From TrEMBL:
Cofactor: Mg(2+)
UniProt-recorded name of the protein: DNA polymerase IV
A Pfam family hit: IMS_HHH_1
Entry keywords, A to Z: Cytoplasm, DNA damage, DNA repair, DNA replication, DNA-binding, DNA-directed DNA polymerase, Magnesium, Metal-binding, Mutator protein, Nucleotidyltransferase, Transferase
Residues the record marks as site: Substrate discrimination: Y23
Organism listed in the record: Acidisarcina polymorpha
EC number in record: 2.7.7.7
Name of the encoding gene: dinB
Assembly and oligomerization: Monomer.
Segments passing through the bilayer: none
C-alpha cells in the first residue's frame, strides 16, 4: 500500500466545527415544550422541504432536504416549526464571536459550520484538540447549544472527522491513521460527492474511498475529468487548500416556491419580498452588485433566468425592485404559463470592495436562498 507522508497531508492544525442539528436545536432551546420531541423545521405544505430535523426526528429517518410531506408520513407526531432565519443568523453570529476569541483565520461554510486554522491560536493552547474542546465548551455554556468538531492536518480530513462522534463530540485524525479511517468510507462521505457523482462512480465500480485509492490518476481523469486528480488526492487524505477568511461571495440570492402555481403577473408580491430580503443581506456593505437576476421555474420544471447589468449599480431598494420587476418583460412566455418558483439575485460584485458576510447560507422552500446548510 502506498504510504502518504505527513508533509503531503499538511502540517497545519485545522478544526472543523459543525453545530448539532442547528435550527432544530435553537428551536428546542428557546421553546422548552419542544425539548425531547421530534422537531422538524419546515413549513407544512405539499412543496415544502425539511430545513432541519432534531435528533429525535432523525430516529424516524427524517433528514434535511426531504419533502415535508414525507417527514410527516414517517413521523405523524413530529412537531413542525416554521424556520426563523433572522434568529438563526443572530445565534450564528454569537458562535462566530466565540471562534474569533481563538483565531482570526475562520472560513464560514454556512450559518452552522466553519473551518478554523488554529496552527497559531490566540490563547496559546498547546494543541488543536484543546482549542476545539474550549470552543465547544464555550458554545455549550454561553449559548446552551452543542457543537461537534473534527481536528486534522487539513480541511478535508477535519470535515470528515467532525462527523465521527456527532452529536456533541470531537475526533482527531492523526497522520498515521488516515488510510485506515478513509479507505472503508462510502464515497458519499467525501465532501463534494453528491448523488449524481456517486451514481457515476457506481457505474465504474467505485463504492468506497478505497476503490478510488486503488485507481490510477489517468483512469480517474478519464472518467471524471479534472476532478479525477482531486479524487486521487482526497483518497490519500491530501488537501492543500488553505482556510480562507472573508471568502468573496459571488452572489446573494433568494427563492420562493409557491404553494400553488402562479401566472407571471401574480409573482409580483413574491418578487418584491425577495428583493427586500436580498437587499437587506447585501446593501450595508460597499460591494455594489452590478448584475440583477430573475429566476423562474415553470410548472413543468423548466428553469428560466433573465439578468441585466445596468451602467450603474442599483443604489436603493426601490431601484433594485424596479429593475427586478422589469425583467419579467424579458421572459417571453405564453400568457397562461404557470410557474412554481421565482428567485431574485445580485451578482457581479465589485472586486475591490468589502466581501459579503455569510448571511444567506440556508435554504428552504417558500423562503430560501441559493444554499442549503447541512444542519448536522
Amino acid at each position: 500500500m502506498v504510504t502518504v507522508t505527513h508533509a503531503e497531508l499538511g502540517s497545519r492544525k485545522i478544526v472543523h466545527v459543525d453545530m448539532d442539528a442547528f435550527y432544530a436545536s435553537v428551536e428546542q432551546r428557546d421553546e422548552p415544550s419542544l425539548r425531547d420531541k421530534p422537531v422538524v423545521v419546515a413549513w407544512k405544505g405539499k412543496r415544502s422541504v425539511v430545513c432541519a430535523a432534531s435528533y429525535e426526528a432523525r430516529k424516524y429517518g427524517i433528514r434535511s432536504a426531504m419533502p415535508a410531506v414525507t417527514a410527516a408520513r414517517l413521523c405523524p407526531e413530529a412537531v413542525f416549526v416554521p424556520p426563523d432565519f433572522t434568529r438563526y443568523k443572530a445565534v450564528s453570529e454569537a458562535v462566530h464571536e466565540i471562534f474569533g476569541r481563538h483565531t482570526d483565520s475562520i472560513e464560514p461554510l454556512s450559518l452552522d459550520e466553519a473551518y478554523l486554522d488554529v496552527t497559531k491560536n490566540k490563547l496559546g493552547l498547546p494543541t488543536a484538540t484543546l482549542v476545539a474542546k474550549a470552543i465547544r465548551q464555550q458554545i455549550r455554556e454561553e449559548l446552551n447549544l452543542t457543537a461537534s468538531a473534527g481536528i486534522a492536518p487539513n480541511k478535508f480530513l477535519a470535515k470528515i472527522a467532525s462527523d465521527w462522534r456527532k452529536p456533541n463530540g470531537q475526533f482527531v485524525i492523526q497522520p498515521h491513521e488516515v488510510q485506515a479511517l478513509l479507505l472503508p468510507l462510502p464515497v458519499g462521505r467525501v465532501p463534494g460527492v453528491g448523488k449524481v457523482t456517486e451514481a457515476r462512480m457506481a457505474q465504474v465500480g467505485i463504492k468506497t474511498v478505497g476503490d478510488i485509492f486503488a485507481m490510477m490518476m489517468p483512469t480517474l481523469e478519464e472518467h471524471f475529468g479534472r476532478y479525477g486528480q482531486r479524487l486521487y488526492e482526497l483518497a490519500r487524505g491530501i488537501d492543500h487548500n488553505p482556510v480562507v477568511s472573508d471568502r468573496v461571495r459571488k452572489q446573494v440570492s433568494a427563492e420562493d416556491t409557491f404553494p400553488d402555481d402562479l401566472l407571471l403577473d401574480q409573482c409580483e408580491t413574491h418578487i418584491r419580498r425577495l428583493v427586500e430580503k436580498v437587499w437587506n443581506a447585501s446593501h450595508h456593505n460597499a460591494r455594489a452588485a452590478k448584475t440583477i437576476g430573475l429566476k423562474l421555474k415553470t410548472k413543468e420544471f423548466t428553469s428560466l433566468t433573465r439578468s441585466i447589468t445596468p451602467p450603474v449599480a442599483p443604489v436603493s431598494l426601490e431601484e433594485f425592485t424596479k429593475i427586478a420587476l422589469s425583467l419579467r418583460e424579458r421572459v417571453g412566455c405564453a400568457p397562461d404559463q404557470l410557474f412554481r418558483l421565482v428567485g431574485v439575485g445580485l451578482s457581479n460584485f465589485q472586486i475591490d470592495a468589502e466581501p459579503v458576510p455569510p448571511l444567506f447560507e440556508d435554504a428552504a422552500p417558500n423562503d430560501q436562498s441559493a444554499f442549503l446548510a447541512s444542519n448536522g
